[in-house]
Write a structure and sequence with these properties.
Blueprint: H1 6-11, H2 19-33, H3 48-57, E1 62-65, H4 72-78, E2 86-90, H5 105-114, E3 120-124, E4 129-133, H6 140-143, E5 145-147, H7 149-155, E6 165-167, H8 169-172, E7 176-181, H9 188-200, E8 202-205, E9 208-211, E10 216-222, H10 235-240, E11 243-246, H11 253-263, H12 277-292, H13 305-325, H14 334-338, H15 341-345, H16 352-357, H17 359-375, H18 385-392, E12 396-398, H19 405-413, H20 418-423, H21 433-449, E13 453-455, E14 460-463, E15 480-482
Helix pairs in contact: 11-12, 11-13, 12-13, 12-17, 17-21, 19-21
């Protein structure tokens, strides 16, 4: 039976815990049971997770340092799962007052007036998590609180009376978790206010000191570039944060693919989607290459959202084709990855050299380079002379991203040596004709990336070094094949 008064709660034997002790004990229970500490977070098992566990076991306030798209906010929000399902608070309390030891004047007066008959209510774990995105316009009043003249007038209180305070986000997170994203973006005076709360447990509002011993876990996120002595963080605050945890992008292609497939929206009204593994790898390799490309600003990073949106866009392009052709299964192929260029160009910050070339050109280069690396796992361009010779003799093949699988297959196998190269590779056989087309198309992309043949932006394959003019196929057909 749920208790409804302080007296009932006291007689039940309930003993409150500090939020850091609560998190620590619940984490220990999770570790003992073998449960995942951060379910759904891939690639951090041997790096971020142990550091996070140590910080919680040490009862530290901590900060996650990493570039954009490294799951920092998601990790902070998942801390809620380590809280108790619900806890009791004094009814009507704005700061989640402990029924046995309230910190607000309102709570103390309620307990003084009603004693064991003071009403309590129960709040869930989600109500105990407060998050704020730091921006330069955030004020001390937003985070800590301010005097409310209307409340003072209605209650007949002096402005210095604690009952006139309208509490900010941090006091309202009492007995819970308070998260600040992009901490260095807070103004210096706001950082000082946070420092005072962490160091002394008190606050000042309009020059009036208010003793408010908050019970809260403070967690932050920031870009490492800003979180330095020469950056935007004040040293005293930095010194009071117990643990710095470095996040990172996926360190293996497999981890990246796992994250992308987990996070991408692939539920298309119940329609079956078949993503060939090499297409998923092609998308992920594009992101890995982008993070190493000198034309892209590494300080800004390349978010993991890039391959996720690439996957969603590629699948959408394949879905468009399936709707047009009447095919039942949605199967993305290389042409669909090129259709995802807008998902790349909006996710990268360019250096000066990159600005000169343009985001679209760089995005195409990245996909081509990823196709080359993937091609090299299965084929040797020196052993595909028959295919190359076909294009050297003037053969032209135009690939349209709206052509059905059977139409594409007939055009592709008309190129001498192309089907044999596929059948002799480790990729053969695929589960469907559409996936066969995707695999054979990868051969052409790899040869183009090795400069053995040429590929126009329009998807036309011709002989190497031929001027990219997009000709070589009839506009009346989804595939133009020249067998001169």
């Amino acid at each position: 039976m749920r208790r409804t008064t302080v007296g009932e709660l006291r007689r039940s034997g309930y003993r409150p815990r500090t939020v850091k002790q609560e998190l620590r004990e619940n984490l220990i229970n999770r570790l003992r049971s073998g449960e995942s500490v951060l379910p759904g977070i891939i690639g951090y098992e041997d790096t971020v997770v142990p550091a996070l566990v140590n910080a919680i076991l040490s009862r530290h306030n901590f900060i996650l340092l990493g570039l954009r798209g490294q799951a920092k906010s998601r990790i902070l929000r998942q801390l809620v799962d380590l809280l108790d399902p619900e806890i009791p608070v004094l009814a009507g309390s704005e700061v989640n007052d402990d029924p046995f030891n309230p910190i607000s004047k309102q709570g103390r007066l309620l307990l003084q007036e009603h004693g064991d008959d003071a009403p309590i209510e129960w709040i869930g774990r989600d109500s105990r998590y407060v998050e704020k995105l730091a921006t330069p316009d955030v004020t001390v009043a937003d985070l800590i609180g301010d005097v409310d003249p209307i409340r003072a007038a209605r209650g007949g209180h002096l402005l210095s009376d604690e009952l006139t305070i309208h509490f900010g986000l941090l006091p309202r997170a009492n007995r819970g978790i308070f998260a600040v994203n992009e901490l260095p973006d807070l103004a210096g005076r706001v950082q000082v206010a946070l420092f005072n709360v962490m160091q002394e447990g008190d606050i000042q509002i309009k020059g009036y000191p208010v003793r408010l011993p908050l019970d809260v876990l403070l967690v932050f996120s920031a870009n490492p570039e800003d979180y330095t002595a020469r950056g935007k963080i004040i040293t005293p605050l930095k010194d009071r944060i117990g643990t710095e945890i470095l996040t990172h992008y996926p360190r293996s292609i497999e981890d990246g693919i796992g994250i992308t497939l987990q996070e991408a929206w692939l539920d298309r009204d119940g329609r079956h989607i078949d993503i060939p593994p090499f297409i998923a790898e092609l998308i992920e390799r594009t992101a890995f290459l982008a993070r190493e490309d000198k034309r892209i600003d590494r300080r800004s990073g390349v978010s993991q959202r890039m391959p996720i949106t690439m996957m969603e866009t590629a699948v959408s392009n394949a879905e468009r084709r399936a709707v047009i052709t009447g095919e039942e299964v949605i199967v993305p192929r290389v042409a669909d990855v090129y259709a995802a260029l807008p998902a790349i160009t909006g996710k990268v910050e360019l250096e000066y050299e990159g600005e000169l070339q343009g985001a679209d050109r760089i995005a195409r280069d990245l996909i081509a380079a990823a196709a080359r690396d993937l091609f090299d796992q299965y084929w040797d361009p020196d052993l595909l002379g028959e295919v190359i010779d076909y294009f050297d003799r003037g053969g032209v093949l135009q690939i349209s991203d709206t052509a059905g699988a059977e139409v594409c297959w007939k055009a592709l196998v008309a190129v001498p040596g192309l089907e044999d190269a596929y059948r002799e590779s480790a990729l053969y056989p695929q589960e469907s004709r559409a996936a066969d087309v995707a695999a054979v198309e990868l051969i052409l992309e790899g040869l183009a990336a090795h400069r053995r043949i040429s590929r126009a932006d329009s998807g036309v394959f011709t002989r190497a070094r031929q001027e990219r003019r997009g000709k070589g196929g009839s506009s009346n057909f989804p595939y133009g094949l020249d067998l001169e």
